[in-house]
Amino acid sequence: MNRRTMLRSAGVGVVGLLAGCSGDGGDGSGGETGSDGWAGGTNVAMTDSLKFEPETLTVNVGDTVTWKTVDSVAHSVTAYEEKLPDGAAYFASGEFDSESAARQSYPDGSVGADETYSHTFETAGEFPYFCIPHESGMRGTIVVE
Fold this sequence. Notes:
Layout: H1 3-21, E1 43-46, E2 52-53, E3 56-59, E4 64-69, E5 78-79, H2 99-105, E6 116-120, E7 125-130, E8 139-144
Parallel strand pairs: 1-4, 3-8
Antiparallel strand pairs: 1-2, 4-6, 5-7, 7-8
Protein name: Copper-binding protein
Keywords: Copper, Electron transport, Membrane, Metal-binding, Periplasm, Transport
GO molecular function: copper ion binding; electron transfer activity
Protein backbone atom coordinates (compact mmCIF):
# COMPACT_ATOMS: atom_id res chain seq x y z
CA MET A 1 0.00 0.00 0.00
CA ASN A 2 1.52 3.31 -1.05
CA ARG A 3 1.41 6.42 1.13
CA ARG A 4 -1.39 8.11 -0.84
CA THR A 5 -3.64 5.04 -0.57
CA MET A 6 -2.88 4.77 3.14
CA LEU A 7 -3.72 8.46 3.71
CA ARG A 8 -6.97 8.10 1.76
CA SER A 9 -7.93 5.07 3.80
CA ALA A 10 -7.13 6.89 7.03
CA GLY A 11 -9.20 9.88 5.88
CA VAL A 12 -12.19 7.67 5.14
CA GLY A 13 -11.82 6.09 8.58
CA VAL A 14 -11.75 9.52 10.23
CA VAL A 15 -14.87 10.53 8.29
CA GLY A 16 -16.65 7.39 9.48
CA LEU A 17 -15.56 8.01 13.04
CA LEU A 18 -16.73 11.63 12.91
CA ALA A 19 -20.07 10.60 11.42
CA GLY A 20 -20.58 8.10 14.20
CA CYS A 21 -19.84 10.71 16.86
CA SER A 22 -22.09 13.43 15.47
CA GLY A 23 -25.30 14.34 17.21
CA ASP A 24 -27.92 17.01 17.71
CA GLY A 25 -26.28 18.54 20.78
CA GLY A 26 -23.57 20.54 18.98
CA ASP A 27 -22.74 24.13 19.78
CA GLY A 28 -23.37 25.36 16.25
CA SER A 29 -19.77 26.44 15.65
CA GLY A 30 -19.23 23.96 12.83
CA GLY A 31 -20.55 26.01 9.95
CA GLU A 32 -23.16 25.56 7.25
CA THR A 33 -24.22 22.37 5.55
CA GLY A 34 -22.57 21.73 2.19
CA SER A 35 -24.22 20.99 -1.15
CA ASP A 36 -24.73 17.31 -0.32
CA GLY A 37 -25.15 17.65 3.44
CA TRP A 38 -21.57 16.54 4.11
CA ALA A 39 -20.06 19.74 5.55
CA GLY A 40 -20.53 20.69 9.18
CA GLY A 41 -18.88 19.85 12.47
CA THR A 42 -15.22 19.67 11.53
CA ASN A 43 -15.88 18.86 7.86
CA VAL A 44 -15.39 21.11 4.85
CA ALA A 45 -16.95 20.32 1.47
CA MET A 46 -15.11 21.21 -1.76
CA THR A 47 -17.64 21.82 -4.54
CA ASP A 48 -17.91 22.13 -8.32
CA SER A 49 -18.94 25.75 -7.71
CA LEU A 50 -15.29 26.24 -6.67
CA LYS A 51 -15.98 26.95 -3.03
CA PHE A 52 -15.01 25.59 0.35
CA GLU A 53 -18.21 25.10 2.39
CA PRO A 54 -18.04 26.55 4.95
CA GLU A 55 -15.50 29.15 3.86
CA THR A 56 -14.56 29.83 7.49
CA LEU A 57 -14.63 27.07 10.10
CA THR A 58 -13.95 27.50 13.82
CA VAL A 59 -12.52 24.50 15.71
CA ASN A 60 -10.66 23.81 18.94
CA VAL A 61 -6.95 23.06 19.38
CA GLY A 62 -6.50 19.33 18.78
CA ASP A 63 -9.47 19.00 16.40
CA THR A 64 -9.03 17.23 13.07
CA VAL A 65 -10.60 18.93 10.05
CA THR A 66 -11.53 16.78 7.07
CA TRP A 67 -12.03 18.18 3.57
CA LYS A 68 -13.97 16.18 0.97
CA THR A 69 -14.51 16.77 -2.75
CA VAL A 70 -18.29 16.31 -2.92
CA ASP A 71 -18.65 16.83 -6.66
CA SER A 72 -16.60 15.89 -9.73
CA VAL A 73 -13.87 18.58 -9.93
CA ALA A 74 -10.57 17.75 -8.17
CA HIS A 75 -9.25 20.30 -5.67
CA SER A 76 -6.34 20.81 -3.31
CA VAL A 77 -6.07 22.03 0.27
CA THR A 78 -2.97 24.20 0.49
CA ALA A 79 -1.99 26.46 3.38
CA TYR A 80 -0.59 29.92 2.74
CA GLU A 81 2.75 29.18 4.39
CA GLU A 82 3.72 32.76 5.23
CA LYS A 83 0.35 33.46 6.88
CA LEU A 84 0.43 30.57 9.36
CA PRO A 85 0.65 31.33 13.10
CA ASP A 86 4.13 31.12 14.65
CA GLY A 87 5.02 27.52 15.47
CA ALA A 88 2.15 26.02 13.47
CA ALA A 89 2.70 22.95 11.32
CA TYR A 90 2.38 23.45 7.56
CA PHE A 91 -0.46 21.51 5.89
CA ALA A 92 -1.37 20.60 2.33
CA SER A 93 -3.16 17.72 0.67
CA GLY A 94 -0.42 15.43 -0.57
CA GLU A 95 1.45 16.00 2.72
CA PHE A 96 3.91 18.48 1.19
CA ASP A 97 6.24 20.25 3.59
CA SER A 98 5.94 23.69 1.97
CA GLU A 99 3.65 25.80 -0.19
CA SER A 100 6.22 25.93 -2.98
CA ALA A 101 6.53 22.12 -3.01
CA ALA A 102 2.73 21.77 -3.20
CA ARG A 103 2.50 24.29 -6.06
CA GLN A 104 5.38 22.72 -8.01
CA SER A 105 4.02 19.19 -7.61
CA TYR A 106 0.37 19.84 -8.49
CA PRO A 107 -1.66 17.81 -9.61
CA ASP A 108 0.01 15.51 -7.06
CA GLY A 109 -1.87 16.20 -3.86
CA SER A 110 -5.19 16.79 -5.60
CA VAL A 111 -8.28 15.45 -3.83
CA GLY A 112 -10.58 13.78 -6.39
CA ALA A 113 -14.30 13.07 -6.27
CA ASP A 114 -15.38 11.50 -2.95
CA GLU A 115 -11.80 11.60 -1.64
CA THR A 116 -10.78 13.28 1.61
CA TYR A 117 -7.83 15.01 3.21
CA SER A 118 -7.50 15.56 6.98
CA HIS A 119 -5.28 17.70 9.19
CA THR A 120 -5.13 18.03 12.98
CA PHE A 121 -4.63 21.59 14.25
CA GLU A 122 -2.35 21.75 17.30
CA THR A 123 -1.80 25.53 17.42
CA ALA A 124 -4.34 28.32 18.01
CA GLY A 125 -4.75 31.02 15.39
CA GLU A 126 -6.06 31.65 11.89
CA PHE A 127 -5.03 29.30 9.09
CA PRO A 128 -5.78 30.64 5.60
CA TYR A 129 -5.69 28.10 2.77
CA PHE A 130 -6.60 27.77 -0.90
CA CYS A 131 -7.10 25.39 -3.82
CA ILE A 132 -4.12 25.53 -6.19
CA PRO A 133 -5.97 25.37 -9.55
CA HIS A 134 -8.83 27.60 -8.35
CA GLU A 135 -6.90 30.02 -6.12
CA SER A 136 -8.49 33.19 -7.52
CA GLY A 137 -11.81 32.35 -5.87
CA MET A 138 -11.45 29.21 -3.78
CA ARG A 139 -10.03 30.21 -0.42
CA GLY A 140 -10.89 29.37 3.14
CA THR A 141 -9.84 29.91 6.74
CA ILE A 142 -9.68 27.59 9.72
CA VAL A 143 -9.89 29.48 13.01
CA VAL A 144 -8.45 27.45 15.89
CA GLU A 145 -9.36 28.51 19.43
